[in-house]
Each structure stands twice: as structure tokens, then as C-alpha cells.
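Section 3.1: Structural characterization of target chains.
Under the original work plan, the team committed to producing a structural model for every single-chain target entering the pipeline before any wet-lab resources were allocated. The record below documents one such target. The sequence was received from the expression subgroup and is listed exactly as submitted; it comprises 492 residues.
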Amino acid sequence: MMQQRRMITWGIPLLVVGAGVGHGLLDGGPVPEEVKVAWSDPLVERDLDTIASDTLRVLVIEDPLTWEVRPKAVSGLEYDLLRRFAGKAGLHVTFTPMHHPDSMLMALQRGEGDLIAAQWTPRPEQRQWVRFSEPYRYVRPMLAVLREDPVPVAPGTPVLKAAASDTVELSLWSPFVGSDYAFDEALGHNTRIHVDPAVLPEEQLMSVVMGRHHAAIVTDARAAYEADRFPVLEFTGPLGEARPLCFVVRRNAPALLGALNTWLEDADEKEARRQFIAAYEWSIKGPGALKARNMPIKGDSISPFDEVFQRHAHVARWGWELLAVMAYKESRFDTTVVSSKGAQGLMQIMPRTGAKLGLDSTAVVSDHIRAAARYIAKLDTMWMRAVTDREQRLRFVLASYNAGPGHIIDAQRLAERLGLDPARWEHNVERAVLLLAKPRYYMEPGMKNGYCKGSQVFHYVRDVTAMYSRLKAHKRATTGIAEARSGTGSPE
């Protein structure tokens, strides 16, 4: 594979730059000259026998692929794997988050932790200080950028101000940081790679989502985990060779390392590990611009219920085509469908909301459409003061219809905190609603409604508004043709 030199802005400590010229612990690369640092040597004697009578202390980063606190739960791939190891070994285990690799190594040598789980790749200089387990997986670099968006950015929108097209961000925690790794030519000849020592990999990727950074290099594992949550992101690659992810222990804990490696090499555990990894991966869509879905139009009719939509459109205060598009998006015009969350009927109204709107078990299709129209009008009134622009307000109404107004109020508050326009949907509040799928955002103070599947809201608003615009354009076109044929239209 051809490798290209890159202009790199490091601004990072000796731990990352190091003196190594090899490719890591596992490939037999040369050992650099001894580098003395504060964490060079173990400062305690704690091996498996002591740990077994006490606690296996794991040092982690706050990250969904390592360790992440959720309401009333903890998750994370490395967390799941090490809990399984501890269970097999009969060990009590605790997890302590750390915020810098240097601090993590120092805590390990002091005995504040016995094992590091931080999606860690061995680097040549580190072989002097610590020991590494066998790999539990391999990862390769991917480039994350914002997809091309057909919706233009409004003048003055702050979301894209800080993006620099010649710079790619790389987290200090990345397996691909260091003088012993070279990206292949697909990254581009003049790319600047900037390593930020202050942010975790997840935070770095969220900066791309918000448009504050032009691009970031992430692992293919992170790309597979985040692709479904963030449709605005495009992942391309891989951009280089695979790196192993390992666990880290002190040099004077050979029994712990041996038990860990025995567990990692067990055939049954390898199969179980594949299943754990699969649970943290989704398919990555190919490159391309953001697209909104369309709906079929046959002649002048949109659905079997056009007359009913027309009858109740005045209640919603929008064109009847909006009701038709929403029904198509919600149920594909199936009056019997019930969602996994209990939403019912043509307009997919939740029973609790339906009861407030006068729906009961005897309701017919007309009642469901009238209730939806009333709910749309109610949401429109609710957002009228906060979002004065009528077209923008429609986006907030649709988002509230899909996810509930509480989540959209949270998204609006979050957008304002992030320096975005809380009264504008595209490129602003729609980005914030995507972040509500992440605990670090929906657990912030003031966020009252918890987790929201923001990607669903994002697609819903974009699809409905796009289809509504197309239907109105189709109606104007067909009306013009009809008038021309009848001789009532304006002469050309």
C-alpha cells in the first residue's frame, strides 16, 4: 500500500509522539530508546491473587464503545466484554473514567486501576512501561464528513462557520495517532491532520455533525456504530492498515495478563465476542447527498381519502396535501396499522394523545384525520411565538407530531446552548435533535425528556416537507394544464 507523508499539527505530549519507528507491539517492530516518564514503572504490587480478594479496577474513557452511563444503566462494548471476563474469572469489577492517556497510565501504575480499557493500540514507546493483551479486535481508519445537502444554509447560520476544508481532526485517543502510522494516498496529499488533546473520539465526531470541523478520522468500528444515528455524516475509507485494540495492564501483573489472554483466545469466547461486537454495529450507507423520500402520485388522486383530507384541512390551517403526505409517511394509508409504541391508525396517533383529541375505540377514518388536523393546529399555536416564520414553524410542528413536543423543546434548548439558531430547523435544531440520541446530551441539565431517536425525526421532517412541496408543485402544474386545455388559462 502506498503511503504519503502528511503535514501534522500535533500539539500533544511525548506519550503519543514517542521515539518509535516500528508499527506496534504485535508486529515485532524495533523498540525505541528508553524514555523515562512519571508512569515508567509500577508503583504497587497487585496481581491476580490480590485482585481476586479485592476488586478488578478498570480505567475507562466515557465512550459508547468503551463505557457509557445511561439513565439507570451502563453500557459500552469494552464494558460488556470485561464484565464477561470478570464473571468467568470470578472477579468483582469496578469502572473508573479518566480523561487523558497520561493520567490513565499514571493511575494504572499507582494501582488506582489494574487494567485500561480505552480502545487502546500498543505503540512502540509504551512497551517499556506496560503490557498489552492479545487484540480483541482490529480497526481501520475512516474519514467522516458532512454529506452534501440540497437544502441551502440560510445566511448567518453559524453551524458551518468553523469548518476548514483542508484540515482533518484526529483524537489523541485514536489508534492512528503517532509517528509510526501513515495514512494511504486516499486521504489526499495536502491534508493537514490536527490532533486535539482535549477531546474524546465521540466529541470529535459530534463536532463534524455540528459543522464545527470539516472532517475527522475515526475507526470503522465507530463509523458502524454511529452511521444510523447521524444520517448527515458520510463515511469513506478505509484510509490505511488495520490496528489492534488491546487491554493494558502493569508489567508486574503477569497472572492477570495470562488470565486475560487465555480468555481472549478461548474459541467459545471468540464467538461470544463476535456477537457482542455485532450488537454495536449497523450498516454504513455509501457516499452521496442527503435525499428525501418521494411518494407515488397517480393522476389527480393522492390516496383513497383525499376527500376527507380536503374536508378537514381548514382545521389544520395547512393545505390538505400536508395531511395526505403525513398519512402516507405515518401508515402508507393503512388504517389498521399499530406501531411498536402503540400509535394507531392512518395518522398514527398515540392513544393518550387521541383521548385528549376525542378519539375512542369507535373512531372511524374521518375521526382520525380530524383529530390529526386538530393536533397540528394545536402544535402550530404552541410554536407560534417561538418560531414566527410560518415555513420554519411547519418543521417544528412536524417534528413535534413525530417525536412529541417535549423532545423538540429539548432540541431547541440544546441548539441554543450550542450556538445554533433555535428558531431555524434545517442545519440548526435538526442537528441538535440528532444529538438527543447520545446520553452525554440528553442527560444534560435542563433536558427533561430523555432519549430521542433523532434520526427518525430528521428523516420525517425532511421527507414530509419535500413531498408536500412536490405535491403542491404537481397540483400547480396539473391545474395549469387543465386551464390551458379548457382555454381559461393565461395566453402564452
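The chain has a mean pLDDT of 87.
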